[in-house]
Design goal:
Length: 260
């Protein structure tokens, strides 16, 4: 599910469309009013992706987990799919190899997925690799609690695509996500305001402070509205970073712009 992701939408589509086939991508548009985004959605619909526009209101966004789960359940009835990956627009699927490195090689990813035997379990994405502004190919490794499904078991997800119950059987996997969460300062400000505006007065510091304390929808974005560009850029450094050159290599090989 995405809304106005002008920078990331096309790279996300091209990367996963090349990996799994455009016809196997399902995008829920949450009311995009950006002309470029709507043009891209229409263009790639013609190439096979599925775009669902029925959940276009701000009130639909908190139900993202249920919407994605219901989609996987419906698709599973066709018996055409082995796995279902609930992904955000800034998450790119990759693989942690036996030597501890991260690979975006599509053949290696597919080989790994073919090696997984279906079972009554969900698969845990243990790690994600956050991009570092100003340092292409370098990523900070963080623990993660996302999951993906096989066609033997699909279970409810919450808004953040996490499990809703700790009693569900989970199996660690070697699938990881390249997480392009960090954006240039001007972009992060614009996106934060856009995502917060339906829930809080973004021009009211007191309201923002209370919203952050109450952990409203998108509360983690409030901090960016208080930062200067210098403060924001000071967050990023290469200390203890992981070098993953294959991500940009793959994007360039499939003809994708890498400015993001």
């Amino acid at each position: 599910m995405q809304r106005n992701e002008a920078e990331l939408l096309e790279p996300w589509i091209q990367y996963h469309g090349t990996l799994f086939g455009y016809e196997n991508l399902f995008i829920f548009d949450n009311g995009s009013d950006n002309l470029q985004v709507n043009r891209l959605l229409k263009e790639y619909e013609e190439r096979g992706i599925h775009v669902d526009r029925q959940f276009s209101k701000s009130e639909d966004y908190p139900d993202k987990g249920k919407i994605l789960t219901d989609c996987a359940i419906r698709l599973n009835e066709t018996q055409d799919y082995n796995f279902f990956f609930p992904l955000d627009c800034d998450e790119f699927l990759a693989l942690r190899t036996a030597d501890g490195k991260v690979s975006c090689n599509f053949s290696e990813i597919k080989k790994y997925l073919r090696s997984i035997s279906p079972s009554q379990t969900t698969y845990h994405v243990i790690r994600n690799y956050l991009n570092i502004i100003g340092h292409p190919n370098y990523f900070q490794e963080h623990s993660y609690s996302k999951v993906f499904f096989n066609n033997d078991l699909i279970v409810p997800l919450d808004h953040g695509s996490h499990l809703t119950s700790s009693s569900i059987n989970v199996t660690p996997s070697d699938i990881v996500y390249i997480h392009c969460h960090a954006k240039p300062f001007a972009t992060i400000l614009a996106h934060s305001r856009d995502k917060l505006r339906p829930w809080v007065d973004v021009n009211n510091p007191k309201a923002l402070e209370e919203f952050e304390i109450d952990r409203g929808v998108g509360w983690h974005l409030v901090k960016y509205l208080r930062m200067s560009e210098r403060e924001y850029l000071s967050i990023f450094n290469k200390k203890n970073a992981i070098y993953i050159p294959t991500f940009l290599d793959i994007l360039e090989n499939i003809g994708c712009k890498t400015h993001f």
